[in-house]
Amino acid sequence: MFSALELTLILLASAVLGVVAFRMLHLPPMLGYLAVGIVIGPHGFGWASENATTHSLAEFGVVFLMFSIGLEFSLPKLSAMRRIVFGLGVAQVFLTIAAVMLFGWLTALLLPQLVNISWRAAFALGGALTMSSTAIVSKLLTERLELESPHGRQIIGILLFQDLAFVPLLILVPALAKDSGDLLVTLTWAGLKAGVVLALLLFFGQKMMRSWFHVVVKRRSQELFMLNLLLITLGAAWITEQAGLSLALGAFVAGMLISETEYKHQVEEDIKPFRDVLLGLFFITVGMLLNVRLVLENWWLVLLLLTAPVLLKFGLIALLARLTGAPAGVALRTGLFLAQAGEFGFVLLNQAGGLRLMDPLLIQLILASMVLSMLVAPIIIAKSDAIVMKLSANEWMMQSLALTQIATRTMTTQRHVLIAGFGRTGQSLAKLLEEEGIPYHALDLDPDRVREAQAAGANVSYGDAARRESLVAAGIHRAAALVVTYASTPSALKVLHFAHELAPELPVIVRSHDDTDLDKLRDAGAAEVVPEAIEGSLMLASHALVLLGVPLRRVVHQVQAARDERYASLRGYFHGASDAPDDEEHLHVRLHSVSLTDGARAVGKRLAELKLQEVGAEAAMIRRGKTRLNVTPNTVLEAGDIVVLRGASEGVARAEERLFK
Q1: Cys-Cys crosslink for 126: which of 97, 145, 244, 587, Cβ 3.0 to 4.6 Å?
Q2: Alpha-carbon Rg of the chain, whole angstroms?
Q3: Cα(592)–Cα(617) distance, integer angstroms
Q4: What is d(CA 581, CA 416) in angstroms, rounded to the nearest whole number?
């Protein structure tokens, strides 16, 4: 039996290894946590088991997840998407639950010796299966640049209602599980309690939240802000628990109240580490429930429970989307993206198991099928275009028509500028090109923006610049330049790949957030990369110099010199405690100042002798007192010099060590 410390170390080490492995495979970390739970749980190596402590911590993970969803609950956002959320979303949730309940009733009627599932259990199971994975789907939509596409909007609307439906389901499932002679009285009493508690929280909380946050923020203490945030989240959860409701409901209300204040985004960033770590522990405990031996013994049932719900949700969502007027391609993509199980489904299934609504063996099999459905979700989504093409004859014609429309608009255009993305940056570029009499044509994936811009006379078409066909239709062979106006390195790399393949001599200008991927984009063929953070700093510095009396010609010369050096003198920055760690921090160029003491190895030596480049860094600047020295290989270092190192974190650390040892 392991001690509490040993068990904690096992959980942490396993979680780190599991998440690293799954991220290397480009799979969601959540699946890594589930795999870790399976391996170290009682049905695996038996290193850990679910107990009161891990259960409580896991429940806190769900609390912080619901708090985050409350932060996203915005009445204006809900109003803007009300047709999808309260039309398509409501229909999907209710019909999925109804279909599962009908299937459970028919199975109990026709095969009572095989499965005997009550309508209460079928309702809980339907609630679990109706959920889709917000984490997986939203991440993949963002990576594929499809959030603003027609199917992207429908998917987000349905996911939003699923998140909202999870709250009443958390209340209904325990109420249904109680042995009561009068079910209507039980449900009415639960609804009244929920209504009273929510009314009190919303009425008093709405009045107090903003003013109380003002008081806390004026103290200018990050520690106090964090303590206050934890107090509000856990306090609201405690209030709802005392009323006989779930902890998660109170956390959801707390998040909803804070979402109406100006501190929403700061709160979201501060709470994220707690949410992710504790939610990871929740998924580990879910994985601990999975008995791999039973799953292997009943593999055909697992396969059936995997394919049946996935096909049911795909068919039902696609049909509903089609009935609401969506084109066949949009409806099919919506169904494919949402066919898998979701993280909230694990919570409801866990709740149903704790309330003993279902047979433990059935829970094991359903749990396994849900995990597998989430594992195959990224593969299904990656192949969604090919699947839609095969299932819908009209989709090929629609895409061909869209490409034909793009080609028709650009057919007579020569030496034009192709603009990838017609947001604020793309529109500003288009205006400047128009003023200079230079033709352009833009591609954008937001149908509303394209429609409005076309009506105003802009040369823009609906199309994805990261697709070869769209670039050909837009006349890339006749273009004078291609400009990627959005800051997305993965998409920009796709555009560069096809641009280099189709028109190797075409200059491509790419926008990026900062200088992190500068070399990667240049190596892919970008003629120039414009990091918005560096351009912002150049403009800020130029205005400051002009206001301080530096002649405008000299300022322009300095800014141009920095650009001519391809941002080399500005690449990297000094890191501080407020800088958030990055998933790929080792790739970031950073600056680090080192003061040479009398006993340092580098004192009296030339820079060339130190060979700092061998360890992945270089001396960006040397300051001796108030004098800035020109950095050359023959510069001799002296005690008291300040050497500014530039390179990746690991390279800078090794270079600093070489300066002293």
Answers
A1: 97
A2: 29
A3: 10
A4: 41
- How many Cβ atoms from other residues are within 10 Å of residue 50's Cβ? 16
Residues paired with 122 in a beta bridge: none
Q: With bands split at pLDDT 50, 70 and 90, how would you rate the model's confidence at 55?
A: low
The 10 Å Cβ neighbour count of residue 343 is 23
Which of 470, 469, 473, 495 is closest to 482 using CA atoms? Answer: 495
Asked if 22 and 32 touch (Cβ cutoff 8 Å), the reply is: yes
For residues 379 and 283, give the distance between their C-alpha atoms in angstroms, rounded to a whole number. Answer: 21
Q: Which CATH number describes the domain made up of 4-390? A: 1.20.1530.20
For position 587, what pLDDT does the model report?
45
What are the sequence ranges of the domains in the chain? 4-390, 396-496, 585-660
Residues in the chain: 661
pLDDT confidence of residue 572: 62
3-state SS, one letter per residue, for 116-154: CCCHHHHHHHHHHHHCCCHHHHHHHHHHCCCCCCHHHHH
Token digits for 53?
Answer: 């402590």
Q: Which residues pair with 170 in a beta bridge?
A: none
**CA torsion 446→451→452→456, rounded to 10°?**
130
Q: What is the dihedral of CA 12, 44, 57, 354, to 10 degrees?
A: 170
- Convert the pLDDT of each residue in 616-639 to its tens digit: 888 877 878 777 777 888 888 988
Whose structure tokens read 């300066």? 659
User: What pLDDT is stored for residue 584 in this prediction?
Assistant: 42
- Give CA separation, 131 vs 94, 153, 369, 404, 461, in Å: 11, 17, 14, 39, 35
Element holding 483 (H helix, E strand): strand 481-484
Residues 467 and 497: their CA atoms lie apart, in Å, by 10
Q: What is the pLDDT of residue 484?
A: 93
**Interval 241-261 mean pLDDT:** 77
Which H/E stretch holds residue 484? strand 481-484
pLDDT digits (tens, 9 = 90+) for 338-389: 999 887 888 888 888 878 888 888 888 888 888 888 878 888 988 888 888 7
Q: Yes or no: is domain 585-660 CATH 3.30.565.10? A: no
* Nearest partner of 468 among 502, 435, 436, 427, judged by Cα: 502
Task: Find out whether 283 and 346 touch, Cβ atoms under 8 Å.
Answer: yes
What would the pLDDT profile of 290-334 be if each residue is shown by its tens digit? 778 888 888 888 898 899 999 999 999 999 999 988 888 889 999
Using CA atoms, how far residue 10 sits from 16, 62, 249, 506, in Å, is 10, 22, 31, 54
With DSSP H G I counted as helix, E B as strand and the rest as coil, what are the percentages for the chain, rounded to 5? 65, 10, 25
Q: How many CB atoms lie within 10 A of CB 315?
A: 13
> 233 pLDDT exceeds 70?
yes
Question: What sections of 178-327 are H helices per DSSP?
Answer: 183-218, 222-242, 247-259, 264-289, 292-297, 299-323
Question: CA end-to-end span of the chain, whole Å?
Answer: 46
Number of neighbouring beta carbons within 10 Å of residue 405: 14
Tell me the fold of 396-496: Rossmann fold (3.40.50)
